[in-house]
Amino acid sequence: MGETVKVIGAFDSPFSHRAEVALCLKGVPYELLLEDLGNKSELLLKHNPIHKKVPVLLHGDRAIPESLIIVEYVDEAFQGPPLLPADPFDRATARFWARFLDDKCSTPFWLSLWTEGEVQQGFMKEIKGNLKLLEGQLKGKRFFGGDTIGLVDIAASGFAHWLSVFEEVAGVTLATPEEFPDLCRWGKEYTSHDTVMQCLPDRATLLARFTAKKDIFVSTVKSMAPK
Amino acid sequence: MAGEKKGLQLLDFWVSPFGQRCRIALDEKALPYEYLEQDLGNKSELLLRSNPVHKKIPVLLHDGRPVCESLIIVQYIDEAFSSSSGKPPLLPSDPYARAQARFWADYVDKKVYDCGTRLWKTKGEPQQQARKEMVEILKTLEGALGDKPYFGGDEFGFVDVAFVPFTAWFLTYERYGEISVDKECPRLAAWAKRCGERESVNKNLSPPEKVYEFIGTLKKKFGIE
């Protein structure tokens, strides 16, 4: 196509990674524009006025926000290995589990890290239950997408690379290899994949940054009404 | 699995705007299906087996295989029956237009139902807040509609399907929220009327007074004055 491709993203963000990995898997070169989320740029606010969040994909004069919408756009707009299956029922299944990650995993995961006592136990039970359901979708395959990385792998990438970093910072254990053998195996497959590694943020840097921000993270859960 | 029923079945609940999205999509494609009303207070084996993760309606069964989540169901209907129905697609073919359609349908999902629920479930300050938010949400959607006859442009499409069931809830929002959609968002009100002239919409939306009555019953049940 020859039009410029840019990703407005953030170093720490697994959602931002989803946009990048989709482009990498399609072999599409792009420029990464890193945001300081504490001081959002004019560019970000202009291209995502509704949600004001990263990532936003800029393709020529088009702006596409929302990470899962970006992944489907990249799949449809560029040549290269498909990120979604061809069969409509399999596509519906992939979309279901991608949505499941955003609707049912993100919030209890976050809350399980930074709350305490009985409240924390409740959220830990919830996220572990949901991760078990997700793990069930692997069914012995290398990736959720089968032999190659697909939409659900990309949607779940936070639990491959970011999970252990957050566990370390919070002093919490959510997914051990004993309890989640398939999920942990998948996590290793994902994070050691050649193309994925091109756009995965350095783990040690993530750990340092999140450790420095721990107090901020804890304060965010105070404004989130527990269920 | 033994004894799978052939064809299409929809597990649904009469007043659900999410279920109505699916009914509208099926009718737009002229697809025959069996409607199975669910008792949400006493969920059936079929529902629990078909949607074990969320245990919610709507669920579309196609030759016994379940598809869950209303917008995923609508996309499935669009993709699985694209050539056989001979009807125009609900999602456009251009990738960017598709991304925009998915964005606005997602916006409706994230904003309308939750805010609408707070309009009738809360009182005082939270209700005032919900009222302000609903006006903002409706104006934002009106902005996305612009001067087009439908969200999709000249053709009734994905975002129209996603949002139109909520137009049956405007009366309820107006009465509990003291909002006038006609006054605040006249172009949106005109769009709602235009959609209402389509057979698929007319046939499947709940009459607004019935929605209002239903919410009244829920309020009594939850002890909300």
Automatic annotation (TrEMBL), chain A:
Gene Ontology MF annotations: glutathione transferase activity
Family in the record: Belongs to the GST superfamily.
Segments passing through the bilayer: none
Catalyzed reactions: RX + glutathione = an S-substituted glutathione + a halide anion + H(+)
Keyword Membrane: no
Protein name per its UniProtKB record: glutathione transferase
GO cellular component: cytoplasm
UniProtKB keywords: Transferase
Domain GST N-terminal, residue spans: 3-82
Pfam families reported for this sequence: GST_C, GST_N
Lineage: Eukaryota, Viridiplantae, Streptophyta, Embryophyta, Tracheophyta
UniProt EC number: 2.5.1.18
Taxonomy, superkingdom: Eukaryota
GO biological process, alphabetically ordered: glutathione metabolic process
From TrEMBL, chain B:
Cellular component terms (Gene Ontology): cytosol
A molecular function GO annotation: glutathione transferase activity
Gene3D superfamilies: 1.20.1050.10, Glutaredoxin
Catalytic activity: RX + glutathione = an S-substituted glutathione + a halide anion + H(+)
Any single biological process term in GO: glutathione metabolic process
Leading EC class: transferase
Keyword Transferase: yes
Keywords of this entry: Cytoplasm, Transferase
Pfam families found in the cross-reference section: GST_C_2 (PF13410), GST_N_3 (PF13417)
EC number: 2.5.1.18
Statement: the UniProt record of this protein carries the keyword Membrane: no
Residues covered by the GST C-terminal domain: 94-214
Localization in the cell: Cytoplasm, Cytosol
Domain GST N-terminal residue range list: 6-85
Family: Belongs to the GST superfamily.
Role noted for this protein: Is involved in the conjugation of reduced glutathione to a wide number of exogenous and endogenous hydrophobic electrophiles. Conjugation of reduced glutathione to a wide number of exogenous and endogenous hydrophobic electrophiles.
Full protein name: Glutathione S-transferase
Species this chain originates from: Eleusine coracana subsp. coracana
